[in-house]
């Protein structure tokens, strides 16, 4: 029984080492340690950074089971240890030690008009092993889509990916984590999937995200349940949750369920 239950959970979609070749794009499936020098891999030098699930890296060269990887991204000037995938968005493909941060090649800073923050395009070269990569980004998203649907549709209708911005998905996933049995790597990969398909990064909507003005009166306050959650009442497994929501609504004086 238990064996079956464990087996029912698909393994993360990693490509076999034999499928990984030089000069190719290789999305990262699960957190991977990186070093500045090939000799650091498997040695006594602690890791000098981490690539995180969903990161897109290019393999510059393969030397046995060691890979030279190039990562491009954006950084905020005041946070040199964090790499973001896109300017102004909190999708994080890597975290860097001071040693790696010092080697990052920086381009010309650009200011985000809606926040005034300064962002710098960056590129870095790192070494890692052949594990935890996939040669096809779509395979990552197919796996994530399936896990998302299985883990997140049990209690309420599934949230549309484009309902939230990449930043909002961080908070939503954090608040729902307690309801899931995701490992850290699954959690991060599914978050990356949702962020890459979110309102501002994946929905085909370009340009800055429209910010809604804060509601000023109770009447203007939006109902706590977004429209896509209206299927809750027809889902019997969700009844206890709905009762909880109704209680929350009563105590918080929010609009009653329609
Ligand atoms: C065990 C039941 C359960 C599961 C599984 C579950 N949820 Fe929820 N969800 C709830 C409840 C209860 C609420 C009401 C608010 C709360 O308790 O935080 C909610 C509210 C939400 C909301 C609206 C509130 C907000 O934060 O904007 C979103 C979006 C959401 N869930 C997404 C998800 C996602 C994504 C997953 C999978 C990672 C998930 N849910 C899995 C029970 C569940």
From TrEMBL:
Any GO molecular function: electron transfer activity
- Region of interest (Disordered), ranges: 1-20
The UniProt keyword set, sorted, is: Oxidoreductase
Task: Give its E.C. classification number.
Answer: 1.7.2.3
Q: What class of enzyme is it?
A: oxidoreductase
Q: Which InterPro entries match?
A: Cyt_c-like_dom_sf
Q: What is the name of the protein in this document?
A: Trimethylamine N-oxide reductase, c-type cytochrome subunit
């Amino acid at each position: 029984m238990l064996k079956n239950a464990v087996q029912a959970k698909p393994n993360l979609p990693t490509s076999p080492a034999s499928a990984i070749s030089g000069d190719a794009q290789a999305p990262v499936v699960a957190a991977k340690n990186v070093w500045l020098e090939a000799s650091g891999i498997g040695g006594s030098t602690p890791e000098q950074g981490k690539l995180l699930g969903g990161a897109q890296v290019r393999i510059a060269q393969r030397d046995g089971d060691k890979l030279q990887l190039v990562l491009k991204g954006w950084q905020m000037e005041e946070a040199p240890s964090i790499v973001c995938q896109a300017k102004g968005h909190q999708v994080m493909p890597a975290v860097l030690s001071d040693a790696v941060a010092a080697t990052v090649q920086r381009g010309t800073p650009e200011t985000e008009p809606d926040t005034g923050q300064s962002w710098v395009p960056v590129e870095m070269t790192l070494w890692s092993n052949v594990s935890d990569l996939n040669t096809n980004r779509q395979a990552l998203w197919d796996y994530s889509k399936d896990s998302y649907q299985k883990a997140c549709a049990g209690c309420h209708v599934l949230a549309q990916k484009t309902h939230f911005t990449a930043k909002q998905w961080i908070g939503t996933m954090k608040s729902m984590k307690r309801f899931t049995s995701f490992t850290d790597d699954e959690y991060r990969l599914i978050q990356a999937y949702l962020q890459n398909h979110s309102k501002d990064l994946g929905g085909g909507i370009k340009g800055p995200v429209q910010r809604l003005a804060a509601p000023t009166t109770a009447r203007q306050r939006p109902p706590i349940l977004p429209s896509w959650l209206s299927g809750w009442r027809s889902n019997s497994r969700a009844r206890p949750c709905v009762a909880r929501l109704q209680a929350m609504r009563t105590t918080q004086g929010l609009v009653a369920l329609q």
